[in-house]
Amino acid sequence: MHDLRQLRADPAAFDAALARRGAPAAAAGILAHDEARRAAQTALQEKQARRNALSKDIGIAKRQGGDTATLEAEAVRLRDDMAALEAEAAAAEAAQNAVLESLPNILDAEVPDGRDESANVVQHQHGAPPEFPFQPKQHFELGEALGLMDFATAAKLAGARFTVLKGALARLERALGQWMLNLHTEAHGYTESAVPLLVNDSTMYGTGQLPKFAEDLFRTSDGRWLIPTAEVPLTNFAAQEIFSEADLPLRLTALSPCFRSEAGSAGRDTRGMLRQHQFAKVELVSIVKPEDSDAEHERMTRCAERVLTELGLVWRRIILCAGDTGFGAARTYDLEVWLPGQGAWREISSCSNCRDFQARRMGARYRAKDAKGTSFFAYAEWFRRCCGPCADCGAGNPSAGRWQYRHSGSAAPLYGRHCADWGLSIFEPSGTLGDSENAIKPQAFSSQAARLVARKMRS
């Protein structure tokens, strides 16, 4: 939600900010509803003051034995007028909020202009995309050939955009999530939580999913919603709370399944594990004072970058342009990983500063120690990273590693800088294993992967 005082003070600036996102001007309509609400409330206060005075007059007249019929008739009219004014004020406020809650956050000045992802700006890059003397395979080709990704069974069980992970890859997803949680809690100071996967309307509203993005969500028959990200419950820890200054920053993390309907994605990324209805993800959320917001955003992004660096992945940070920045964000950094099988950069992480946009929706405030009772809206930041072996997440994607190499004419995945330890070969088209002496059976992946992740977690 937006600060009405700022909108009243400079409606032209508000409309200019919306125009950066390609949204139409809205200030005049909001202010018209605001004026109607305030006028109704002023009239209501005047009627209430007259009614209070009238009550005193009726009491005096009765004690003196006077006729109160005229006064009582006026009191009845006032009661009816007040009810009408209350309804009028409520209707104007509802109309105003309906507009406000549909409008995206105001972008930071540093966000580059642009209509779509083509205008995003690379800020820095870690490593260089590797070159191969052959065509690298994509994650679904490697996963199916190794018998670790089963799309056919997933489709039989649940339909499109689901995947069954088997054996070593299922273990790898679990291990990656645990390693990320350990890193963020032990090295980066986040507090781990296990959160509900089902939440109510107000929780979804607080982080901006409702009402605008209801079609992107899954809803249960009893009116609850499956979370699209652990950002939703974690950020709402602060809903309707007033923190002391000493409570902040509040840094939270969770690993959870996430559920998305992928409405509007028909025909896009239909192969493999892109745009899944269900996936696992580690989330980071920080609730901070406004003056600490920018520093926290940078800190959080560096925590994410450390994960990618330690996994040996080739990655880059980009700042999203105005047309590509999400609804609730004022500024967003995406971390993209190079996928050799696609020959493209793909988003793996997104780190956003929401300023007080979500805090206003949730009623999340803090009280400065010298503010003498005044409370201020806290600022929210969030970061999301898939931890499962999907193409949105190079961390667990066997085709997103720094290297692939050739065994007897077939491409084998090397995961991160460590995958040479795993020595995997992919199945040949004929269904036979490569004949290199380094080629091993897929089931050996499990024990070697487990040892690698165990070493990583201990370090």
Report on this model:
37% of the residues lie in helices and 19% in strands. It is α+β, with helices and mostly antiparallel strands. Strand 11 (331-339) and strand 12 (344-353) form a beta hairpin. The radius of gyration is 28 Å and the shape is elongated.
Count of helical regions: 12
Using the 3D structure, state the CATH architecture of the largest domain: 2-Layer Sandwich
Name the helix and strand elements from N-terminus to C-terminus, one letter apiece.
Answer: HHHHEHEHEHEEHEHEEEHEEEHEEEEEH
What order do the strands of the largest sheet run in, or round the barrel if closed?
A: 1-10-11-12-15-9-8-4
How many beta-strand elements?
17
CATH superfamily of the largest domain: Bira Bifunctional Protein, Domain 2
Radius of gyration from CA coordinates: 28 Å
Strand content: 15-25%
Summarize the structure.
The protein is of the alpha+beta class and 459 residues long. Helices cover 37% and strands 19% of the residues.
Task: Outline the secondary-structure elements.
Blueprint: H1 4-9, H2 11-20, H3 27-63, H4 69-100, E1 121-126, H5 139-145, E2 149-150, H6 151-158, E3 164-165, H7 167-186, E4 191-192, E5 198-199, H8 201-206, E6 225-226, H9 231-235, E7 242-244, E8 250-259, E9 278-288, H10 293-310, E10 315-319, E11 331-339, E12 344-353, H11 357-362, E13 365-367, E14 375-377, E15 379-386, E16 403-407, E17 410-414, H12 444-458
Parallel strand pairs: 4-8, 7-13
Antiparallel strand pairs: 1-10, 2-3, 5-6, 8-9, 9-15, 10-11, 11-12, 12-15, 13-14, 16-17
Helix pairs in contact: 3-4, 7-12
